Amino acid sequence: MSNLKKIKDEFLLKLEKKLSLSEINEIKSNLFGKNGLISSEFKKIGSIVENERKKFASDLNLIKDELQNLINFKIDEIQTEEINKKLEKEKVDITLPERTFIRGKIHPVSQTIDEISSIFSEIGFSVEEGPDVENEYNNFTALNTPDNHPARDMHDTFYLDEKKEKLLRTHTSPVQIRTMLKDKPPFKIIAPGRTYRSDSDQTHSPMFHQVEGLHIDKDINMGHLKGCLNYFIKEFFEVKKIRMRFRPSHFPFTEPSAEVDIGYEIKDGKIVIGEGDKWLEILGCGMVHPNVLKNVKVDPAKFQGYAFGIGIDRLAMLKYGINDLRAFFDCDYRWLNHYGFDPLDVPTNYRGLSR
Ligand code: DAH
Q1: Which residue has the least CA distance to atom 8 on ligand 1?
Q2: Considering only CA atoms, which residue is closest to atom 13 of ligand 1?
Q3: Of all atoms in ligand 1, which is nearest to the CA of residue 253?
């Protein structure tokens, strides 16, 4: 029996059995792979004596076609069987009601951060970030905070190690340090983010949000600070006029330091920001202390500027009429559904920072 016939008979017999896909693929490669039996026969054509060559080649082609067709047929058969089995299992019950589609909401704090970033970016501030876990140096020492300052107390600050070297940042002010250490002046940045203090009641949460502002350049003075904050508050509360006052204060990292109050009144049980004879404190600010600039290798004889720190949660509560801070972080879906924002339902002064 010729070699070709032997191959053909042997493999036809093999292919008669019920085979798995991998078994068929194995047969396929035994026959048609690089060193497969059929492939090897093809390589022999050139060395066959001329008067037998034509017949050999034609026989070989016939056998190749026959085996290849059979293999393809078998593969098809198995795949169809698999699909049918799958379909059998995955029956769709078209009588079932559709699943409800729940769309997420944007948390008022995220919304407020976006609004703040958008307002400051209009006047040339870029956004910086810093880590929640800070070192003692950036959070206190570099910010000119003396060793005996009450903010360093364990009752106020969450320390993360015995040596009090690592802590949860108590304010966003360390981002001032990080920004100035990594670049050269001028600086014009805001830094929104989470901050932590050991405090909890209706208006204080151990985790809360602040946005830091820093503007350092040649010839920056308190007039610039006032103008910047006045613009921001009007834009944020969407009012044309705002009553605002600077109250002298003390922060170790600014000199002079001030707290800013804005005017408000209560109308029909609701707080109205802008005019009125009541005052509400909303932020701390001042001219950056020369010691802070020295600590980050900026020459205070050449550069100066202002900084501010605003409580974001407080602003969100005021703007959106939410009166318990703790509800912000309870993760109650019903609350979020009520106070949250639809991604497309944006307030009028929102200029669409991407999220
Ligand atoms: N870091 C201060 C705080 O958390 C707020 C603050 C006050 C930030 C004055 C400043 C500033 O940048 O200049 O209470």
Answers
A1: 309
A2: 285
A3: 13
- What does the alpha-carbon distance between residue 206 and residue 332 come to, in Å, rounded to a whole number? 18
Q: How far apart are CA 69 and CA 73, in angstroms?
A: 6
Average pLDDT, the chain: 91
Spacing, Cα 222 to ligand 1 middle (Å): 15
- State the sign of the Cα–Cα–Cα–Cα dihedral 273, 274, 280, 286: positive
Q: Are strands 166-168 and 133-135 parallel, antiparallel or unpaired?
A: antiparallel
What's the whole-model pTM score? 0.71
In this structure, of 83-97, 106-120, 250-264, the range with the lowest mean pLDDT score is: 83-97
Ligand 1 atom with least separation from CA of 170: 4
pLDDT band at 118 (very low <50, low <70, confident <90, very high): very high
DSSP assignment, residue 97? P
pLDDT in tens, 211-249: 999 999 999 999 999 999 999 999 999 999 999 999 999
Give the distance (Å) from ligand 1 centre to CA of residue 235. 21
Q: How far is the CA of 310 from the centre of ligand 1 (A)?
A: 7
Token pair listed for 269: 């049980």
Cα(208)–Cα(331) distance, rounded to whole angstroms?
14
Helix (H, G, I), strand (E, B) or coil at 195: strand
- Cα dist. 19→12, 14, 38, 69, 153 in Å? 13, 9, 21, 16, 76
Asked if residue 254 has its Cβ within 6 Å of ligand 1, the reply is yes
Q: Which of 140, 204, 285 to mutate to test the pocket of ligand 1 (most atoms within 8 A of CB)?
A: 285
Residue 353 has pLDDT above 50, yes or no: no
Q: What is the DSSP string of 258-303?
A: EEEEEEEEEETTEEEESSSSEEEEEEEEEEEPHHHHHHTT--TTT-
Task: Please state the rounded mean pLDDT for residues 149-170.
Answer: 91
H helix intervals, 214-264: 222-237
The CA distance from 281 to 314, in Å, is 10
Residues whose CB is less than 8 angstroms from the CB of residue 81 and which lie 6 or more positions away in sequence, other chains included = none
